[in-house]
Amino acid sequence: MKKATGIILLIWAVCFVACSKDDENPSPANTIRGSWKYVGYSGGLAGLPFTTQDSVIYFLQFDVNRYTSIRNNLQGCGTYSFEKDSVNNPPHIGLLYLSGENYPNKFDTYLKNDTLTLYPHGMADGFSYSFVYSLKQFDWCDSTEIH
Mind listing the domains of the chain with CATH numbers? Predict the structure, then answer.
C-alpha cells in the first residue's frame, strides 16, 4: 500500500511540474502583446553597430492575432502568427510571420528585457530592427483593411 501511495504521489508531482512549466513559458503572442517603438537597427552586409534612427517614427502594435504598424504616420495592418522556438532558447521566442508586410515578412524574434529585436529570417546580411515597449496605443484598422 505504501508503494502504491508513493507511486501515485510521484506521478502527481511529475504532472504538477509539467503543468506549471507551461505557465512559466507563455506563448510568444502573449509576450509581444502591446505597442513597440522603433529605436534603431544594426547589422547588414557591413556589420554596422547599433544605430539610432531619428528620421523614422515607427511603431508596431500586437494583440492576440493581428498587428498594426505605424511608419511616419502611415498605418499598415495585418495578421501575424508565431512558430514557437522548439528548443526553448531564450531570448529567442520564435519565428514571427507578418501577413501585411512587404518583403521581408518572416522574422526571427528575440525578446530581452524590454527590447524586441526582429531579424529577417534566412538573411545572413539583413539588418536587425530593435523596438522598446511603449505605452502609446493606436486604433486598429478596419477588418476590411487587413490583408
Answer: 28-134 (2.40.128.270)
